[in-house]
Amino acid sequence: MADNEDAGPSSVSEPLDLVRLSLDEIVFVKLRGDRELKGRLHAYDSHCNLVMGEVEETIYVVEENESEEETIKTIKKQEEMLFVRGDSVVLISPQA
Amino acid sequence: MSFFGFDTTLPNKKGFFDASDPFAEVARARAAGQQGDDDDDDAIDFEDTYDGLGDRLNEDQDAFNDDTFGDAGDSDGPVGKDFDFFGRTAQVADAFGEEQVRYNLQYPTEGVAETITQTNTVQEPKPKRTGYEKYEDPGYIPDLQAKSSVWGVSKKPEEPIYEPPAARRILSLEEVEAQLRQSSARSALLAQPPVSLPPGIPEPLYPPQQMPLLPEIFSQIPPEILQAQLAKGIPPAQLLQHLPQPMVPEPYPLPPQAPPGIPLHLLQNANFHPQHMAPPPQRHAMPPMPLQQQQPQQQQQQPPLPPQALQGANNPLPVITNPQQLMQLPEEQRMAYLLEDAKRAKRNHKIFLLSRFNGLMTPQDKNFITRIQLQQLVAAAGNVGDSDPEAVLAEDFYYQVYSQIRGAPRQHPHQPLGHFAQTYLFQTGNRFGGHGGRRNGQNADNHMQRMQQQVQRAVEAAKAKPKNKQLIIEGSLGKISFSNAKAPRTMLNIKRPESSEGAKTTKKAQTDLSLTDRKFILNSIENVYNNLMAMEDMERTMPPPPDEDDPEAIQRHMEWRQKVRSLNQKLWQALKVMEPIVPNANTPHPFIAFLSYPKGKKAIPRIFRQIDQEQRVTILTMIVVHLDTLDVVRRSQQAAGETPSLDVREAVDLFSQAVMPSLLMYVSEAPFNIIIGLLGLVIAQTHVQTVSKTRIGLGILTMMLSRAEIVKEAGQAEEHDWHQWVEKFNVLFDTLEPILADIFPASINAGDDMYVWQFLAAVGIGASPEQQQRLVIAVKDRVMETVNYSKTLPPDMGSQRLGNVNLFMRAIGLDVELLG
After folding, report:
1. Domain coordinates of chain B in residue numbers?
2. B504 in A contact zone (CB under 8 Å)
3. pTM of model > 0.90
4. What is the extent of the structural domain holding A23?
5. A window 2-61, beta carbon within 8 A of B
6. Could you give the number of structural domains in chain A?
7. What are the pLDDT digits (tens) for B164-221?
8. What CA–CA distance (Å, rounded) separates B580 from B622?
9. What backbone torsions phi and psi does residue B672 show, to the nearest 5 degrees?
10. Would residue A12 count as lying in a domain?
11. CA B680, CA B729: separation in Å to the nearest integer?
12. N or C: at which end does chain A have fewer Cβ atoms within 10 angstroms?
């Protein structure tokens, strides 16, 4: 896809250029530690540090109950603005 | 700068030695001679590091060391064994303690004396290491330290220790000389850190348990001073009492170059200033007679001493060394004395606190730090020439923009320094200026100038340095690549494709196919932003308005304009406004797609700043033509009873905040015929009924109607134009009349319907009386509804709704009041 759209100075020439297309858009970000974020991407840099707004954070926690069954619990948090350090970012996906 | 770092020209010192010491004159003359050269030596200079000075220290001058310190050869052996500092101290520590307790018991009220003693004991353990040692003439330091110990070691002044030796210690010059000769064999020992007493010395002067630690040298020097003071006619007893005071550091003025807060014993320690490297030559000149040798040593000690010693003698308060003496004083004087003492102790303590880290850094360290700072300064300002503002921006974008917004005035308009460098220098200047009272003002200025010059030189050097990142030495195989903090060495070297023309053309065909692809639109939005940023950046580099007489300036200005024009063209292309309009295409026009993204909407105000009127009207036309396919119009269509989704509401809000003002700004100045044309386009090209059911659609219509009204009011409309307008208006009115009741938000309590009333008002003003009548009939239900509804609302909200209705009612010459 990216190859098709080489036009002008903002042509896609490296992976992060694709992230640039999602600036100011809603993105889905998967983080280490079983966390996911969904929110508007305000800024990013070459380390994948992100600044996101109106973020919904989902944390997946595995819990063991008495009968040793594992259940997955999700914790959701709402953040107005979030800085994400790049080293925890696993993937960034545009959320159309 | 002078010998030993003290200002030897102090007038008060003169009084001390001119009678008894011809050598002081010599020294002073020398110092005065040196002063000119060394004046600015205290400025830490790049080139002028210590190594340079060290070269001047000729080792051959050590030849006279033996004369100076006695022949160390014979007494070498015992030296090592006798410096059991701790043991010696420990032996008498008990005695000290007992003495203290006894004293406290005896005079329990005298807390002041206690404080003083404490202050002194605190000062004692102060580390003497300054880092200079290895750079100094080996024979030179020890006696300096011996001197410092004179002040550092003396203790417990209030005790009657010094009374007995008083008479004994007033020695004539001959006596002193004799004594010195006698002990010349010991002088090598004396040269060592003096705290312990060499065993060979008979201790005739002090009862052993009272002054066990006082170094021999102490007994040598004071008589000199005493004699000098005697020459001034000061009663010896007073002098004696005064001399051994532990407060010695306090009452003396600090030498001029010394930063405030440095305790005297540090100053006395000649290590404090680099200038102390100067002495050797002078020493060389001195004949090796013991007494004469003493002169320079004394010199370094004396500046602190004399004036206040004399003053002390004139002090209305008697000098007190003996507590009993204190008791005998009248109450008033005693209080005054204690008060004075307390003050002094407090100050001493303060000085001590301030000076705790004095001497922690050697001049080398300071030089090193200064160099680092300068280097950063250069790195920060290095590429800065006025010729290259780009680099300045790249270096410190936010600061630059911030200071531009703030309009921060440049302090030195003609200096090609970065703001950072300027700030740095400015502050440094202030700091040094602040010391004006203590320092030689001229000196401080000089320092500032030198610093500035250095920075300037460094900056120039950095500019002159080739910018190559690699160095290939001829004949070698490898490359040496440089790196610094600003441009770290690249680990990977990946060539960016230089948007090669060939690649572009091959892809062009495909681009058309994916016109509506989301990613393509996003990409073109980024493209627009890139161009926008480039253009906004160009604004910063705008050359000053050209001078008629300066062809070069005109040339520059032309070039700049050319660049701006080409950027404008690029931006225009990126916007894709001119892409052909495909009628009935099921994909929106690229520009309309562009506007459907929030960031596309947000870009509009910035774009409007960069484009000319013609381009603006083109954009406006484009929007008007596609009014019904505009996302904010299309998605706002909803069935009755439905409230628009949050997304849509946000998009509409954003559009009315970001795009509408830009359009309005243009429309409010647009010529009448363009307004007529636009209205014609709305009628001909769009589904007016669809458009009018949306907030944005109504907004744009309102915009045009009110502009027409203003033109008419101002009488600027020509007859012909006006006819055309009325024609179009009638068509519009006829089209809208059937649905006038439906243009309102679905339910009456759905919130803001002001824009509808505004639109109706705009229609009403322009309408003929007959049309007004039809208008009232069409919306009268809604009017009544709203009026009734507003009565159920809280007063302020109700009056707001009524006000909205009245907007329309007044336009057609009515008022809600009339409705009862």
Report:
1. 519-542+563-579+587-632+647-670, 686-819
2. yes
3. no
4. 18-94
5. 2-13, 20-25
6. 1
7. 444 455 667 777 777 777 766 555 444 444 444 444 444 444 444 444 444 444 444 4
8. 11
9. -60, -40
10. no
11. 9
12. C
